[in-house]
Model the fold of this input.
Amino acid sequence: MLPKIFSSSVFKKILMSLTGFGLVGFLITHLIGNANLYRSGSDPFNTYAAKLHSLGPILEVAEIGLLGMFVLHIVTALQLKFRSRNARQDRYAVNASKKGPSKSGFISQNMALSGLLILAFVVLHVKQLHFGPGMDAGYVTNVTGESTRDIHRLVVETFSDPLNVALYVAAMIVLGLHLRHGFWSAFQSLGLTCERSSKALYIASGLLAALIAGGFLFMPIWIYFGVQS
Amino acid sequence: MSQNISVKVKVWRQDGPQATGQFESFDLSGISTDMSFLEMLDTLNEQLLKEGKRPVEFDSDCREGICGSCGCMINGMAHGPERGATVCQLHMRSFKNGQTIVVEPWRATAFPVIKDLVVDRSAFDRIIAAGGYVSVKSGRHADANVMLVPKDTAEKAMDVAQCIGCGACVAACPNASASLFTGAKITHLALLPQGKVEAARRVQRMTDQMDSEGFGGCTNIGECLAACPKEIKMEAIVSMRREFIKGAFAEPPRQAGSDNA
Done:
């Protein structure tokens, strides 16, 4: 039996915050690493990928941890969503925001929707690239001296299809909107803000969301238009 | 300048807790813009009584915005379009001549409708009963300033103590969460020396009760802040989380008479 505190809605929000911060941490490292795609040629990105995979068990542990946070974030979110659904079974005929301090809007009210869209994207993304054709399919490079996977070629091939480019760009916009409310909200849920810091963090959250979404968003565009080669 | 306007009121009618409700429309003319919203409903009810029909049921008491009895959704906004005011302090000058006004009860599973615009808010009472008090023998009241409280702390406590328990936060919240109400009560008592002693136990019991009443979780949207007639701030909810975390790490209370060694 889990202690009673784990079933509390306040605790579940804390869990959302902590896993959310973890996932944002992953996004930042993922962005910094993948920024190698913006450099000319296939070597920088392939070298980065080879070095990352040479970490071996450390990477595996990190991957399991990431998956754990991801699942926990989603499961907890769904539990909270169902709680909210049950909390108001009869809808209002008319509903409007009183504005002022309210941050009510399509984005803040549909975090579960944006979250599920991101989940769908992640499944596709991992399937296309992580579990995409590897060395046995001829994607081999010798950039580090020994044979490693030519992931750069796969990325370029993926983004030569305009459908993939459109899909990835759309997914990054959804991610940006999710982070816009989510990152700031996480500080509130952990009790880390006061009135002044809350305002500053709301702005910072917008900037971070734009930076992360924008940083990823231009990669497929950059590659599609061949700017880098 | 006072003037008379005509409005169309579309109000929720429900005969009882189990009955299915529906909207009923009434045309009202000669409504003074100086009337409060409740006085407009009084006028409607007088008209209905004259016609031998059942008047529209709604809660009200002090009619000066301090008791927390009144409250309903007006055009989709808790307590209507005016900020920092209860329905009794909302005036008809906030509406245009010929406007249709949709009036609904608070809607939340934890606030079942009793009749028309009247809802059962006893869930709030049970949250208070779970820990929104100080367990000391109070005796006769103490002299003022016997227990010194710094001015800024007293001000902060007063900001949240202003909560009148009207339920607008729950009604306005897209999740029907009672976090602003519960947070205000927890923060108020946690700030003051009289309440600090039981802070850890209080936050656990009150948030547990809040959950078991069937209120939703908070998603930090802050529609409650816009709806609150006392303009209680987000800080009340944020500080509830701080108290919750502090409480989770607090030493469990000792049983009375146990060995302290």
Remarks:
- Helices of chain A lie at 9-34, 43-53, 57-87, 106-109, 111-130, 151-158, 162-189, 195-224.
- Chain A touches chain B through 47 residues (CB under 8 Å).
